[in-house]
Amino acid sequence: MRPAPVCTCLPGATLWLADAREHGAGAELAELLRTEHHRRAEFLPAFPPLPGEDPAGAVRRTGMVAEILARNGVLAVVAGAGPEPSGLAEVRERHRLSGTAFLAPAPGPGPAPTADALLALLGAHHLVRRT
Q1: d(CA 78, CA 25)
Q2: Do residues 21 and 53 touch, judged by C-beta distance below 8 A?
Q3: Contact indicator for 78, 46 with CB cutoff of 8 Å
Q4: Could you give the CA distance from residue 47 to residue 124 in angstroms, rounded to a whole number?
Q5: Is the dihedral of CA 4, 114, 41, 49 positive or negative?
Q6: Strands of the 13-17 sheet, one edge to the other
Q7: Spatial contact of 32 and 83, defined as CB atoms under 8 Å apart
Q8: What per-residue confidence (pLDDT) applies to 5?
Q9: Which helix (H) or strand (E) holds 25?
Q10: What is the pLDDT, as a whole number, of residue 101?
């Protein structure tokens, strides 16, 4: 049996979910993208800092992996990486320099967004086909 075709016609991107409450929705979104939207998608929980590393270093490492995946057509969903300002600015700049889409919705009060809400955000940026 052949696997379902995977769409390679849409660009990759990184969806950066800084709020740890979005971890479940991020994992659910990656699965939804693979199964229902036939997108190459990977869920990346944030990397913890290495011994002696500052939090910005962990954010940069997580961002580099996400950017490499996204640059190669994968929708990388990163969750729980925190809004560490200097590391996140470097991640955003790395994506910009490589011409790779980077979405980082600002965490807000109230409940964390659902996978469907995150899917709508990706659709608004033409990163998934609307079904």
Answers
A1: 11
A2: no
A3: yes
A4: 28
A5: negative
A6: 41-45, 75-79, 13-17, 101-103
A7: no
A8: 54
A9: helix 23-35
A10: 93
| Predicted confidence (pLDDT) at residue 102 exceeds the cutoff of 90 | yes
Residue 65 half-sphere exposure, CB side, CA atoms within 13 Å? Answer: 15
Q: How many residues does the chain have?
A: 131
Residue 57, Cα to own-chain centre: how many angstroms? 18
Q: Which residue has the tokens 């790779």?
A: 100
In angstroms, the CA 38 to CA 47 distance is 26
C-alpha–C-alpha distance, residues 105 and 49, integer Å: 23
CA distance 38 to 53: 37
> Which positions ≥6 away from 125 have C-beta within 8 Å?
13, 101, 103
For 89: left if phi > 0, alpha if psi spans -120 to 50, otherwise beta; the answer is: alpha
